[in-house]
């Protein structure tokens, strides 16, 4: 199997962790039209031909027909829907969570970054360094190394967490379908976030729109598309 709904995959749930507190209503009404990729250009971390083949194989293309519909409105006279805690609107979440983890593992296997469900950290680091620095020499190797180190540490913690579940993630809503490693999807999302935060000044796009995007990310959880034409990828199940 192989890795995640690629780069854009996006998204930017990676910049800020989900909180129980009710997010700013403007986060849903006034999402920036500009994408992080437009403010800090990055190459695709995984070859998109490989990624698309894996998405096709596991039906992980985020089409509107595949997305869960928004929840129904609360009954009359019960505006909070009976929830003591504000209801969280998860519209846009894909019905098949395992499709994305399996597509991710598929792509990592095809790229040689993973074998038998285990990440080859040394090979993954060199892969990301090569892809990013050869695409744009303004990206220092040290920046990529630091980003990978931080993300690999998170992967190690996650590996221990999921080891209690047999090392892989079961589909959360069904006993059917494949079970795959969540590591690729988490790693790519983390790399996007780390690299965006560390974007070199001479790579970052100076514009009012990008300043507004950064303000949005400081306040909100997303999700946003990582680059034009790609829908937000649902956060991996934990």
TrEMBL record:
Domain OBP47-like: 101-216
Similarity field: Belongs to the PBP/GOBP family.
Positions with biased composition (Pro residues): 68-77
First and last residue of the signal peptide: 1-21
Classification of source organism: Eukaryota, Metazoa, Ecdysozoa, Arthropoda, Hexapoda
Subcellular location: Secreted
Main location: secreted
Pfam families found in the cross-reference section: OBP47_like (PF22651)
Region named Disordered: 61-87
Keywords tagged on the record: Secreted, Signal, Transport
InterPro entries registered for this protein in UniProt: OBP47-like_dom (IPR054577), Odorant-binding_protein (IPR052295)
UniProt-recorded name of the protein: Putative odorant-binding protein 49a
Organism: Lutzomyia longipalpis
One cellular component term from this protein's GO annotations in UniProt: extracellular region
């Amino acid at each position: 199997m192989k890795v995640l709904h690629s780069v854009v995959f996006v998204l930017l749930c990676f910049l800020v962790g989900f909180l129980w507190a009710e997010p700013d209503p403007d986060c849903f009404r006034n999402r920036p039209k500009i994408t992080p990729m437009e403010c800090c250009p990055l190459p695709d971390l995984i070859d998109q031909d490989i990624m698309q083949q894996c998405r096709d194989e596991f039906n992980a293309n985020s089409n509107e027909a595949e997305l869960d519909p928004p929840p129904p409105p609360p009954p009359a006279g019960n505006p909070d829907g009976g929830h003591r805690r504000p209801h969280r609107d998860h519209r846009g979440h894909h019905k098949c969570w395992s499709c994305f983890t399996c597509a991710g593992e598929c792509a990592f296997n095809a790229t040689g970054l993973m074998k038998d469900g285990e990440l080859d950290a040394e090979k993954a680091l060199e892969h990301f360094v090569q892809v990013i620095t050869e695409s744009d020499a303004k990206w220092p190797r040290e920046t990529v190394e630091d980003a990978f180190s931080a993300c690999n540490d998170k992967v190690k913690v996650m590996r221990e967490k999921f080891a209690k579940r047999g090392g892989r993630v079961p589909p959360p809503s069904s006993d059917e379908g494949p079970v795959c490693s969540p590591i690729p999807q988490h790693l790519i999302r983390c790399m996007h976030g780390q690299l965006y935060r560390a974007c070199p000044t001479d790579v970052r796009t100076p514009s009012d729109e990008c300043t507004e995007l950064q303000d949005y990310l400081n306040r909100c959880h997303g999700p946003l598309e990582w680059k034009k034409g790609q829908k937000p990828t649902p956060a991996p199940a934990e």
